[in-house]
Request: fold
Amino acid sequence: MSDPIKHECGLAFMRLRKPFSYYQQQYGSVMWGLNKMYLLMEKQHNRGQDGAGVAAVKLNVEAGYPFLHRIRSAAPQAIADVFRQIGAEVDELARFNPEVHKHPGLMKGHISFLGELLLGHLRYGTQGKNNAEFCHPFIKRDTIPSRNLALAGNFNLVNTEELFSLININPGEFQRQSDLAAMMEVIHHFIVKADEEQPGNPDVKSALRKALPLFDGGFHVGGLLGNGTSFVFRDAHGIRPSYYYINEEVIVAASERAAIRTAFNVGENEVKELLPGQALIVQEDGKWEIEQIIDAQERKACSFERIYFSRGSDEKIYKERSALGHNLSEQVLNSVNHDLKNTIFSFIPNTAEVAFYGLQKGLEDYLNKVKLERILSWDKDFDEEKLSEMINRRIRIEKIAIKDVKMRTFITGDDARNEMVQHVYDITYGTVRPGEDTLVVIDDSIVRGTTLKESIIRMLARLKPKKIIVVSSCPQIRYPDCYGIDMSKMGDFIAFGATVELLKEKGKGDYLNELLERCRELQQNNQLHTENVVKQLYKTSTTEEISERIAKMITPPDIDIPVEVIFQNIENLHKSCPSNLGDWYFTGNYPTPGGNKVVNKAFINYMEGKNVRGY
Reply:
């Protein structure tokens, strides 16, 4: 992705179902569970690089000894830092007793995180600051074990203020900045109520049934109670991904199927999807159940998971990203007038690579069809040279763009900094015939267009192609997201900026104020959640007009090479990713009322010149 945007977070949950002595005998180490947790988190490293944390609960701990532990880090390599600290405790113990690893009971008693219940989290700072206290898991301590709660998740809520008022809590400064703090208070509130009814063994199912309907957002959350009960739950629309795997040794849940498959070496069909509105609940004795906590609503699983966020090592995601590229081939062929002899194809590193392979396959299918038709049209009028020339025609592909290691800019002046930003990407010289070849490059999405304008287009222009065509494997991003992705300001979207420019160019700039007044009217009547007012703005221009304006906006003023932008259409997006139809950032069709509230608030902020979040 040329314009980096924040990923969602990653969740890793594990419940060991055997005593530690079993893992020592079976796998040669009592640390088997912690090692698997480390692997499970590393295989989701793509989902969060601002921080990491792990919580552990130990079963059957003697009274007076700690049973809930937590460690968090906001270090540059947060996962490694967390497990380095855990490992240091193990090393320290081994120094006093080199044979301690042979005694599972001693290890459990002395190693803080050697617990049967483990909860790991990877964080991208979509809310709050990037320091350790904002990293998950959060914990709520109590003198009664069953009222101790550790919670972590991949989610955003848009109604945190309302949640605090529902349970009569006046949030502090820290709590206001964290939606997890709001969720924690609500869930803990109902856990305590359930514990009052069943002391020491609260009915988690009942507590979740009361809490989850109050949350407006997309969520995949894991929790541990001090008495050994644990749970994982998912929102009613299935917005955020959730997968689990269960055998006699372990119960595992994570944000990505491929992470579980790799960590535990299991087949695709062995890893199940936790369906919308469901919870996986594990009792203290290791017995488990899948329970429908809230009624499932229309499935709106996030399509960005398939386009960009999730690791492409998942076989279904790989096929879907390939399909995204394949379904663009007809538009691309029309754009280059089917002139494959004078067109070079490439991709923006690195996440667009799989979509590029799909585009290449679509182009090859077309070329093979042309070859067949031409050869058949010759009848018998050909010689070896003519036939050889035809069958050896190929799609011209090159590795044009190269992403260098992350460059740090120490220069403060804007002009000098912009000069340095140009060199984030480099090019392969000698790959393009100047003035003859059209250059087509595919990216997975275009959000702000800043990197395209300041770096990529400038770099590609150095090759002096006849024309540059930028292809986006997803549609125009027009609306904010409020369910996990850090896209909440209208002014950040180049599609929005292009639409505003076109509106003003057509002499209809006053329409923006009309929409603003409509938003303010809804806000005054506490109805901001009832409709997406910004949808009306995009009716003032066609998709093609907006694409043409985006092309103009990403072309630096000193570049005279024609630039064109092609976007995926919604129909082909859904065709490519049939199980992930959540498309609100493209269409404005939000699955929860909070989405409408966020987009309207974001528009008000834009019109009032406030560079703040929409929620």
